């Protein structure tokens, strides 16, 4: 791993994953790829070595290595909590340090970030060019307002600059892997004993109004070519002996031609890897059977799909777009069973204007899916607004919902609960209704244990025990207070992918 003697910039990825579930910090590597060789930098990952105080480590580096800029990548939820804790410590000891933040949280809440006393600049939009140009401007004494895609506060006024355009990922240099110890991110997952991850495209062509990606992508999608992905897979196999690859794109399967090209690359290079990616049901339903066969034969094991709802009217309100429909999801679930590829379906339940009716309808739909394809994975989330507007957002706003106005408020217990999507004080669902949803989830997850859990392999005694104990509840639609299942899941260290990843 390369470490420069003098360091101008520290990229910091605050803790957000459980130990041994950390993924490669792709967003940071992508931004760093554009300043490689031009500015000195280091990457500090708070998800590694939990025994170390990363804030203290950064303070020491600032004092000893001449660091001037701290660039922090922030996702909403637990990462925001670790960020704020560390940021306050770092700035207390290094008041001269310039702090730049980017990622989904700052993108969607840039006013709150720009307003924070310890943050100097916010990257709003695709970050590679904006970050590089901002450092150039600050280092050469140019005005930051000449840089596209940033926000900051000056004399109490919020300054925002023009939106920046995404870069074609095919024109970006390869990730500077030599800046991290890649072995730290090679993990055993249900896909394979040596799994790495990659982000192979920018954005998504859709505008779902519950999705934070919309503010970033603005309807644009650009993917790395299948050939480039083949080269990368080859490189990863040769260098780190991977046997599995996760694609963390927002919408990996947007272009059938590219996916076919990637599969053909795997064949021509004789690469035997399992892989996983995220896609849309309506897009994948259009794929030809020969492509499905090709994907299966080339190691595609599971696809994450935003099913969102079993109700077409709710899909319309979500602005899900395309040709997505409940019947289409059922068709796809059946098709994937035929091709032996697991659909991992995520749902958003409790949507306005009638959250309870919506919840019950989707629960019925989920049961239907499980009957059709028992190996389908189900991930459930409660509806929570994102600031991209839309019919549902307007409705919850009318009910009195508003976002916090400071980072301190964002990390207070009420908002932590909302971000963790556990039972929380939200005006569109009562506590009782949220508990009902959580109870159904407990019973469903016990009766159909996820195949991605590391400690509960399908067919193992733990797997059958969960099924046996939960069977009468699932078949009897009896979800009330499943204390015994909560206890059992805890005893068996049952991990859910939506909580800790694979
Ligand atoms: S298709 Fe998926 S990634 Fe794209 S906007 Fe909708 S939810 Fe977001």
Automatic annotation (TrEMBL):
UniProt keyword annotation of Metal-binding present: yes
Task: Note whether Flavoprotein occurs among the keywords.
Answer: no
UniProt domain Radical SAM core: residue ranges: 190-425
Any one Gene Ontology molecular-function term assigned to this protein's record = 4 iron, 4 sulfur cluster binding
Pfam family of this protein, just one?
Answer: Radical_SAM
UniProt keyword annotations, A-Z? Iron, Iron-sulfur, Metal-binding, S-adenosyl-L-methionine
Q: Where is the B12-binding domain?
A: 5-145
Question: What is the annotated signal peptide range for this record?
Answer: none
Q: Which cofactor does it need?
A: [4Fe-4S] cluster
Coiled-coil region list:
none
Q: Tell me what this protein is called.
A: B12-binding domain-containing radical SAM protein
- Print the organism lineage: Bacteria, Pseudomonadati, Pseudomonadota, Gammaproteobacteria, Oceanospirillales
